[in-house]
């Protein structure tokens, strides 16, 4: 057999291994309901329930942050994160959590939040806009 | 409805838009003219050629003019333009105006087209017989880039996105029905605080110069196949590939330095999709470069060399699609958002992919593909295999990063790996091991044929030595605690350094021109060693075991608790250091927190002390954004970053001083119930965190704005407060005015105290001092995280050495070009 053929086989084998491992390592998007039924890690997409309290008190425990999130199916669950409250958390429009269920709480080890306003400010936030008599000072 | 708007400066925008259209038209004309100049048979007719050059010059001028108009708009704070309003603000210093310039997509497209115009001019000057076909391809790319900026309506859809769009056209709002709406727009949105870092001034231009320069090897490859000059294009392509690899590599590492200095994720590389997008084309071009050299030296692997060169540019466009189309929305924090250019970007990729496939199929039968087998013991064979593995490592990056693309294409819902960093780390480490091993032992091989016995002896001797040194490094640095594959990478990298050092030593004796590759290889290997130790053995110094809420099984998921809490002026032991949050200062818009680090020896004497000033920016528009501060040592870095602080409260901004206070009784709710003490001069009052001594009485205290009558009395109590090793002075005042008693309390914010001189008891010669103490939670505090990065300087040094190596190689290849 030619060397280039052997090399070709090795390359194809590694490529297949990469694809399989990617597929087996990829987790799934789910809801809180799915999280209750599985022990593996899940990604849950949802948004912050701004009516319920966020709890972060650095003076009690600097590494404990909890909040309530609604997943895309509308189900709500308490989420606990070991770490500090991400900056600007209240403004987030969408949250992607990675983690798993512990009892009735979802324990997240990663929080990815989207604040589109950070990148595309398509709202003119001018205090003068609503009440033109008041001068904006920002 | 036509409103006569007041105060708008429409001229720079109109000019800018005119130049955008001109740059598109001239690029298109240049492409067409260069095409006909290439294909025409009458070699004496120079009309197409002259027209082509003229249009490309016009293109260059208009691209520069676009830049000037945009700069004028941003520099003069013309917020009637959306771009200036969205990315800049009045308070921004000039050097950040430059970085706000490329914060938006339009600005970065401009940067790209600017560099491409510059490169086009260099090619017109240097490329000689290659100019016509090469510039046809460059012109096409320039046309497509210009179309991204054009921002005109075509058949009901907007094509491209112009930086000169007016705010009132870009954003809907009732305010724009008023002619004087500009009076209400006082300031722009400003630049994202994370981008307010000097690396952001130079990282994007470097990165985009790298991206832009990748068109040149692509253009040479296309030109070579098109003009049937199959072998000739390789030599100039090698020089330009070296340049592109060097610049793009530098740009990528600059980005990681920015992440390390300015972002708070605690590291320099996170396998974020945006980072991957810049790495993917780099890896492929590095592979292409090696196969080009293989072909040049041995005549083997022509197809692979051509294919990889062409592919590398297509991957630049694919990377651009990934980061700009918004498709990565759910997987990346900092992927740019969609500007409605999804299909435009797809079209860009498809066109250049089409050219790649087209030229290869068109010339397939004529390609000088060698049918002869390569020798097993030849350098070219193993360089080729090594490049194949570089390609595979890139494949892994592409497949995993593109998960959202697969989802969009196949309507699936695959989530990205739950722990992408470790997945990438393990895979890329495996590839890095193989690649470094190859870049080591290929140095002992010769092109075409090598004496096998000698080769095996040297290789194995060096491998044995490398294993020995690796064992020492792994033991000392603690890398042995990591997965086995990382130890292999270390072995590969050490071996790579040693083998290339041997070549370098030989080159220094005689063939100095050959040293470039050895230096670049050493740099790359050192970079890997540094990255491996720094990322692999970085330690969270600020480990916290206090206040843990134990949840069964939870520890497996969560990392160690990484944040510690520091109250002002209360030292905490952290690792080898005693750290104290000593104060803060406000240099608008940054809020700096001073953290004193002290290293004590056994006797408690201070061996070393320094202050780090991590900061948070209290940005009105974007909220709180923290940036770390780092103490650099030769062999490790101590990185400190504030993850939370109560900085939103206005009153904390003035903290740090002993402030006087008049009245304001309901403020007492900030304190614990007061405790009164009756003391004589010289007596000591103890309280929770220290003690207070009544030193003396001041019979003539200063009281602002209150004139004292003849029967009025005012006395100040000179108090000395000692808390946590600091001494503060405070002088609360007791006053009798018009037969009424008053007192003026004094606050000692740093000690969390308010002190009142509340009564004089003449009979006993005693004085009543009332002590208000702040409860713990009301005191100033910061929550911070500190990480130790050992040997990170290898990473930076490796980068610099690698760049030097590339430079040396470029000089070598250029001198070869002149000889041939």
UniProtKB/TrEMBL annotation, chain A:
GO biological process, one term: cytochrome complex assembly
Classification via Gene3D superfamilies: Nucleic acid-binding proteins
SUPFAM superfamilies associated with the record: Heme chaperone CcmE (SSF82093)
Entry's localization field: Membrane
Cellular component terms (Gene Ontology): plasma membrane
Molecular-function GO term, any one: heme binding
Keywords: Cytochrome c-type biogenesis, Heme, Iron, Membrane, Metal-binding
Protein name as annotated: Cytochrome c maturation protein CcmE
Species of the source: Mucilaginibacter robiniae
Organism ancestry: Bacteria, Pseudomonadati, Bacteroidota, Sphingobacteriia, Sphingobacteriales
From TrEMBL, chain B:
GO-annotated molecular function: heme binding; heme transmembrane transporter activity
GO CC list: membrane
InterPro entries with a match to the protein in the record: Cyt_c_assembly, Cyt_c_biogenesis, MFS_trans_sf
Superkingdom as given in the UniProt entry: Bacteria
Skewed-composition ranges (Basic and acidic residues): 663-674
BP terms from Gene Ontology: cytochrome complex assembly
Record flagged with keyword Heme: no
Swiss-Prot/TrEMBL keywords: Cytochrome c-type biogenesis, Membrane, Transmembrane, Transmembrane helix
All residue ranges annotated as the Cytochrome c assembly protein domain in the record: 106-325
Bilayer-spanning residue ranges: 15-36, 56-75, 109-125, 137-156, 207-226, 238-259, 279-295, 302-321, 341-362, 382-406, 426-445, 457-478, 484-507, 514-536, 791-811
Listed PANTHER family: CYTOCHROME C ASSEMBLY PROTEIN-RELATED, CYTOCHROME C-TYPE BIOGENESIS PROTEIN CCMF
Record-given protein name: Cytochrome c biogenesis protein CcsA
Source species: Mucilaginibacter robiniae
GN (gene name): ccsA
